[in-house]
Amino acid sequence: MQIGPFAVVPRSREARLNVDDFRAAARRRLPRPVWAYIENGADDGRTTAANADAWGRWLVRQRVLAGVHDVDTATTVVGDDLALPVLLGPVGLAGAVGGAGDLAAAEAAARYSTRAIVSTGSTHTLEEVGAAATPGAWFQLYPWGDRRLTGSLIDRARAAGFGTLVVTVDVPVVGNRLGERRYGMNSQPWLSPGVALRYAGRPRWLLGAARHRRFSLANLAEPGGRGGIAESVRRHAIAMRPDLSWDDLAWMRRRWGGRVLVKGVLDADDAARAVDVGVDGVIVSNHGGRQLAGTLPTARALIDVVDRVGTETDVVVDGGIRSGHDVAVALALGARAVLIGRPWLYGLAVAGTDGVAEVLGVLDAELRRTAHLMGVRSVRELSREHLVCAAEVAAELVW
Ligand SMILES: Cc1cc2nc3c(=O)[nH]c(=O)nc-3n(C[C@H](O)[C@H](O)[C@H](O)COP(=O)(O)O)c2cc1C
Prior knowledge:
The structure is a single chain. This protein is α/β, with parallel strands linked by helices. It has a single domain (18-396), classed as Aldolase class I (TIM Barrel, Alpha-Beta Barrel), CATH 3.20.20.70. The chain contains 16 helices and 14 strands. The strands form 4 sheets. Strands 6-13-12-11-10-9-8-7 form an 8-stranded parallel sheet. A two-stranded antiparallel ribbon has the order 1-2. A hairpin with a 2-residue loop joins β4 and β5 (80-82). α1 (19-29) packs antiparallel against α15 (342-373), α4 runs parallel beside α15 (342-373) and α14 packs across α15 (342-373). The termini are far apart. The chain binds flavin mononucleotide.
């Protein structure tokens, strides 16, 4: 329908123009416990906030009359060609946010010729996702103490057609996630009358949840699906081992035999050690600030890691990436690509698979526009020459 010069669009097309818009819409749709699960960081959340803040501390240089027609956003990470340098990071329990969960991520990533990394804690089994995803998909492994269990997951991932293994190493113990603990979303899930009311206040979410029932960690659920969320989360918690070491990583690399990235590195010495073990890539990450509160924001750690191992291995980064500007800064600082965690969950909460794809679309468009205005033809050209430190500029403004 048309009213004068205006095309009338449904309410569902209400302006979702950037990641913040998706965040606000997701917050309105999700029950408070689920919102706390995805949004909160460890302790007071300072590292989650610092991650997002840090990207804005770099300014990008505007260049004019550069004759750029289109921006090429393609990149290669551990030999995998991606059309967009933004991957969907592994997220446990995505089905609690939206029933399509890990399948939505796989499909949205395929639409943009990038990758979704399937979590060990996925709510669809890795076989279900492997069958739906573009061949050679990426699987994230939580290394458990029991090598038999870890080995069986590695073998299952290989059999299901996954091509790249991402080993997450920053959870020897679970961070102090107050949001999860406050609402019974931790390793021993609970429900009180007060928390139940929080769910009741979101009937649309409840209806969807009653339909899809994707709440358990599917890779860990008992055969036949018995046990549900409590049992699978309990199994996950028991399986974690606090004393994992470099020997364990070396063993996992050998057992997998294919491409391996290590996720959760913040320290240049650890990055160098990982390269010694023979990994193909390092993901600079502090788990979205969900582990050690008060540690380095990833934008800062990235610089140390790239300076130490950037010529020997592919470096990827995540944490607080919320715009094309942030992606451009990360690439200019030396990352080959970035992961997003919460932003794709916002999209999932708002509009399922299409919502996740819309979030990727927003970042794609913002990255292209930013690079264009920086006078860059390909995002692979981005380097530290393209950046200016905001603090230095601020200091120069003082006289
Ligand atoms: C709700 C939630 C669940 C997560 N689950 C996992 C997981 O199962 N495995 C993992 O390696 N990282 C997990 N992460 C961390 C993300 O992969 C990623 O490192 C982080 O979210 C990036 O920060 P961002 O959310 O600010 O983009 C999770 C993050 C969130 C928010």
